[in-house]
Amino acid sequence: MIIICPQLKAHGACTDPQCKGYHDVHLCKLCGIFCTSTKCYEAHLASKKHHRKLAGHDGSQYQCTICGTPISGRKSWDQHLQGKRHRRKAEKKGVLPEIAPAIPEAFPGKVFCGICDKQIPEGLWPSHPRSLEHRRKEGYTAFKAALEEAEKDKHGIVLSEGLDFGIMENADAARGALRTLTIESTVPSSRVTIKTVSLSSSFMGRQSPFAITTTAEGAVLAYRRPTAIGIQFSTPHSGRMDDRLEIIFEDTALRVTFVIARPLRAIVGSQADYELLKPIAPFQPRRQTRTQPETQVVSGVPPTSNNIIPYTIKLPKAQIPAPLLAALSEMSSGKALDHIRRVFLPKVINSSTYSRYFKTLLWIEEHRMEHDLERYDIPDAQLERHGVYYHLPVPGLAEKRPSVLIGDRFLVQKHGAVEGHWYEGHVHFVRQASVGLRFDKSFRGWSQQQRYTVRFKLNRIPMRRQHQALDTAFTSDKFLFPRKAHILPLAPRPGVGPIRPFNALIATNPPQLQAVTSILLQQPGSAPFAIFGPPGTGKTITMVEAMKQLLKHKPNTRILATAPSNSAADIIASRLASTLGADELFRLYAPSRPFDLVPDELQPYTYKKRLEGEDKSCFSVPPIPTLKGFKVIVCTCVSASITYGIGIPRGHFTHIFVDEAGQATEPEVMIGIKTMSDKTTNIVLAGDPKQLGPIVRSNIARQLGLEKSYLERLMSMDAYEAQSGHGLSVVKLVKNFRSHPAILKFPNERFYANDLESCGNKNIIRAFEGWKKLPSKKFPIIFHSISGKDNREASSPSFFNIDEVTQVRKYIQLLRDDRQVRVAHNEIGVIAPYHAQCVKIRKMLSGVADEVKVGSVEEFQGQERRVIIISTVRSSRDFVEFDLKHTLGFVANPRRFNVAVTRAQALLIVVGDPNVLSLDPLWRSFLNYVHLNGGWAGPGPTWDTTETVDESGEYDQHIRAAAMTDMNLLARRIEGVVSESVQTGTANEDDDDDDHDANFDKPWRELE
């Protein structure tokens, strides 16, 4: 094995002339990483870790090479760079002040380990080299060095470059292609023989699309007479293929055996696709831009609509407390989490500490949201002036990345302006790709050439509304922490005879009928009632039917119906509008809601008010007497605060309904409940805690429970246990009207105790049975195995996979051209977990299949399509560096998986790399299910699909173990002797917290 000098590894230098360690390295003092070749060093300089260090994104101790000053922490480093003293010294030395930080080679009482990238206390240093982490990383470094050594020409033998077959169309790859590698001796007197020629895959028992056609084994290499070795590539599959050619030579004169290796590569796909979708620029993590404080902000001119609703109760400011802000800003995520638990959170969560607990979580989430908004800052913007308005182009606005509403704020600073001086601009209108801002009249100096720095500012109104609700004195245990004692028996049935549903299908569905009956017969002030509605079981239909029955049998009923999103609230209102008039139903919208986003059938159920001094209107509310006269008011969870803010009294509503309750945070749901309920109000929640929960951006807030919805928390309590609470506190809907039995079977068993029944229209759900493209004609699920490459580009941390984009397009073309089963483009949905992949797929389908909806899992929750195609994106060619958290990211999320695979009615197609997906036990079980039922396409699985899945999830360790074996075998072949096994593992350069990058792919919720 190649031994690297331990002094060099530990301290970056070695002065021992007798040292036999390997010294030919490049050392990056910033990162403490050494590389055994220029190629390796250049790769490190382009790596994520190095750029994070350059950007100062970790919490290490640094040293300024200009001032010679030690500095602790990223924030302090940023402040130091802006300091006058530092800039004076830089100017005096004639260098730029913006420099990369250096890690001091020594700190008092510590020794820096270059392999582990850590400062080790001197007392622990003697034992550190023996630690598992150190030995693994040391072994991996040795393997990389051995591989680089193997690819070097040696002993005067020169090989041509590795064989890259390039990008081949499927038909060409199926026919096969030949390439030649040449070997030449450059030493006249040498006598070297080719002993063996082999592929690395053969040593691991793996099938390979590469084959050796001409070996030249036994040939004696003559001086300057090239010897050829033929390699054939052939495969019927798409994707990226690689292997390694290893040639063992023997120098008979010196009696030395040595190895020279060359990589073999090929891509099977479309050359045109790769040219169209290739990265626009190499990935470079975006540096932090907000180093300059906002010391003076000139307030802008808010839109008139901000005052269109006659509030009588003011919103609290609810600013983040300074000590909490300091902890979030200055501590690492792990330390901040521990500190917040000890200092800011109550030891016990009960009715008296409930508000304090959730207010703290809201502040934590707000801090993260503000931080995430920085990604959208525009450092070099131009403004267009039109009268009093300034138009600002906003990249990503059409995709709501970020989401911008009327009334939101931007901060704008002219290039060259006084440091810290900013102008606030309020959004007065939002267009497809730009927003219209108004500034204070002192905003001068505009020209078409003038450039500006633009910062996005978080709209705090939704957060303040949640704080306002949490601050109310209503803290009933019955609503917040219901127990079995709070569940009241059902009241006698009103009238005579059974309920006659407005929707006739409910009469044939016992669980739905039970839920409607229970809600109708609940006594006033009962514990919250939950409609547990798994995918496609009709929970919204059930909830709307319950509202209609209440209004029919109890004329004094007044209902506040809410949902987390406007789209979900619109569905409720549209279904109620079939039986309620405009004097009975009111659809309450926030003033910022654009008219063109409201369904035509709901326009008569709204109220608009003309803006003072302007020739336009916006949504508002009628006078309180009129508003109180409506039987049902429908709005979003956040907009429910309007009813409280304008003075509707607590207890006015007899019932509060919350649809899609699993998608809202608990404080969101509490806006309506804590402001409008009294002890006689009945609460009804509908949703599925097994599907996606609310979008929470802060990892700290998530770990502290903000991602757990109110519905999920209730469903985990004894009072909502399925048996004892059935019909009194909860009803589980079990008839699925959406999916083919085969599509439903796996999620049914994994998430719903096999309770669901497939009851969909057979003409729809069985339409693809017998389809000629199905691997198994009665099984309408395809898993298409493909080994691609996940890329990133420019400053976006989001992943995309060109190989999978091409395969997705092929399936859409097959469906479009098929004459056996007719499918319209709007009946196809494509789900991808990464925003960049969605963008690339849309680009590929542009002008060809624009009606195909392409989006994230979150965008498809609550929706369905006849055909769903899922692109899982993640793929890696280096199994040694597999890390389940970083490689699979949020692809390996049970709820995200559940939502994705339950959107399809008749056909489900999943495109992905099985070697990556199988690291997660849930995905491995699903792949086994598909393979055992004959739905597999592409290269087969590399594991036994009949084996029981290990739910402990150690498959990434298995992959590493196999890679270690491969390393050991290669090392032995290179050395030509049997040597001690390499202790190795992952040399993960991404072990920093990836939360910030992961948040990039989370959509921004549009909260009114």
UniProtKB/TrEMBL annotation:
SMART domains: ZnF_C2H2, ZnF_U1
Keyword Nucleotide-binding belongs to the record: yes
Places the protein is found: Cytoplasm, Cytoplasmic ribonucleoprotein granule
Superkingdom of this protein's organism: Eukaryota
Residues annotated as domain C2H2-type: 64-86
Alphabetized InterPro entries for the sequence: DNA2/NAM7-like_C (IPR041679), DNA2/NAM7_AAA_11 (IPR041677), Matrin/U1-like-C_Znf_C2H2 (IPR003604), MOV-10-like_beta-barrel (IPR049080), MOV-10/SDE3_DEXXQ/H-box (IPR026122), P-loop_NTPase (IPR027417), SF1_C_Upf1 (IPR047187), Znf_C2H2_sf (IPR036236)
Leading EC class: hydrolase
GO BP terms, alphabetized: regulatory ncRNA-mediated gene silencing
GO terms, molecular function: 5'-3' RNA helicase activity; ATP binding; hydrolase activity; RNA binding; zinc ion binding
Record-given protein name: RNA helicase
